């Protein structure tokens, strides 16, 4: 009995001496308390700005224009122009002038687009706009000189303006974006559709990044991905400066990935490049959580986005990135809330380039280095007056209008989706036709050469093999080309006729495929004056040119068009959306966007008289008198002085 009591006492002592085991939830909470507290503090101090009258950007404008509130002298503006710190612009009587020399014409065009949208409301002025990647006016420069730049750090006095990439002139990424990302307002719709296709619960929980090595700050993430690919999927792609694998940290460059395909991942990274990243405004729209690395580089819309409220801030050296990724994975609901706040903020208050330009240029000091436009300047636009009536956007209603629209390029000089589909189908048909005709011909030509050269003497075995391969290659090229151009022509005519009927009648019908098949054969017989072959399940039809051939060709084409059309329509029905339905949806979305722009312009025009009246009321008579006196004291024009002396 005493032994049992002693054993019980020893057991209790052992239990009391053991350290307590904390609960898993408590450990998790205490482990991430630092991050949770930062989020809570950020939310407590956060006040959403109002999108009305561009108030979200007032702080940016006031801070950038503060050094120039006292005015800009002619000498200062002349110095800025002479130093070639940017492109020289003048606005005179609602006309925009630019010097002929522009380092990046597409960038200048993107900037000019938004200026021209509001030029009817801007006073006469002169300015220098920097379209390079890097700001031009460091704060140590005294006095500060006025140069507009799209991006800067706190160490520069440049005046920020919306980057040209909102319209055109963005970085080209071959082959996915050969002319740049294009218009942000249109790309925005593609990203929103992708975000709807990939809601939070369906997204991949691996952190994701694809981009070129424009800055070594990205290296730690690439190396972390190679060490822990389940945590991060990050790879370098090629850019214009790529020369070898040394530029991608010793591994082959990855393929470029469309931005819409980034939306399938929960966690996306934004790094600076040479300056601020052009991709940041696109990542907003994916419904994903954005990890923003570094806070030095800014664009005009950055200040309205707050760390821990709209995105996860990451140190520039990425020393805390692994811990942050583990935090969001362990707190999925918190990560989702941050991503949703970013999406809601961008939906309610998207960056408005033309509005910002109007608000920034309106109070910009008005000074001219020259009385008239410089001799080497050119007018960007002949006339742009404030419209009293904004025409309602036109939607093509008739079949001929829709057909004409099919062959008209959009603002980004891109062909319509229907023509792109026809081009892709033609290329695919050519490749398939070449393979269909060339591969059997290659095998047959090689066998035939071997059979016919049994008695031929060769120098060695290698010579015999090379001769056989040359014969086989000739057969591959000859018969591959024959089949390639035939299938390309057939598929191109078939798709062109079918697409034209679909667009003209604004619907997708089986009869269109039947008509397209018949017309394709008729056109082939009429224009090529040769025997036409078409293979279906191994059967070869050869029809001689003539009346009987024309009739037979039309009938056969119609018969072939029927099963092809039925198969394509069944596939479209299985996918849930026909090509025509997709086109109508895209046209409707574009029409709604144009109507919104029209409504905003009309509203802006209606508010203008009130703003002018309010501005006039704020001006004090004493200030006006001082300005008039200063103007009267300016040196007189020598030409007019000489004229008066002669009189």
From TrEMBL:
Topology relative to the membrane: Multi-pass membrane protein
Subcellular location: Membrane
Biological-process GO terms, alphabetical: mitochondrial respiratory chain complex I assembly
InterPro entries: CAP10 (IPR006598), TIMMDC1 (IPR055299)
Region (Disordered): 613-647
SMART domains referenced in this protein's UniProt entry, alphabetically: CAP10
Compositional bias per record (Polar residues), positions renumbered to this chain: 636-647
Composition bias, Basic and acidic residues: 620-629
Transmembrane segments: 422-443, 510-530, 550-571
Domain of life: Eukaryota
The keyword Transferase is annotated on this UniProt entry: yes
Segment forming the signal sequence: 1-23
GO CC term (a single one): membrane
Keywords associated with the record: Membrane, Signal, Transferase, Transmembrane, Transmembrane helix
Major subcellular site: membrane
Cross-referenced Pfam families: Glyco_transf_90, Tim17
Record function comment: Chaperone protein involved in the assembly of the mitochondrial NADH:ubiquinone oxidoreductase complex (complex I). Participates in constructing the membrane arm of complex I.
Family: Belongs to the Tim17/Tim22/Tim23 family.
Protein's UniProt name: Complex I assembly factor TIMMDC1, mitochondrial
Source organism of the structure: Camelus dromedarius
